[in-house]
Design goal:
globular
């Protein structure tokens, strides 16, 4: 069964850091992109960062210079290192896996709360 499992969320003070992990299992193809999305309490969804199968990363303007996405192919894991966190980063963070010709696979999400 194909599955994505996120972890690493929590409560942190403004200016702090968290590292999110997304572990993929049951995926037979090595050619896929992983993205991190977030959805806040107002249900606004934002694409935060993505990384392609060859390691090309892209970021939303709101997180550039603060967040870093990386992948460990051997561990089928993608990380989102989040530094200098702000209260407006508070959201549920989801990872997604995209492959050509198939609907994206979503994880269950992990809550990140940044206190001021």
């Amino acid at each position: 069964q194909e599955q994505l499992v996120e972890s690493g969320g929590g409560l942190v003070q403004a200016g702090g850091s968290l590292r999110l992990s997304c572990v993929a299992s049951g995926i037979t193809s090595s050619i896929y992109a992983i993205a991190w999305h977030r959805q806040d309490s107002g249900n606004t969804r934002e694409l935060v960062a993505s990384i392609s199968s060859n390691g090309l990363a892209n970021y939303a303007d709101s997180v550039k210079g603060r967040f870093t996405i990386s992948r460990d192919t051997a561990k089928s894991t993608v990380y989102l290192q989040m530094n200098s966190l702000k209260p407006e980063d508070t959201a549920v963070y989801y990872c997604t896996l995209s492959r050509n010709g198939r609907s994206p696979l979503w994880g269950q999400g992990t809550q990140v709360t940044v206190s001021s």
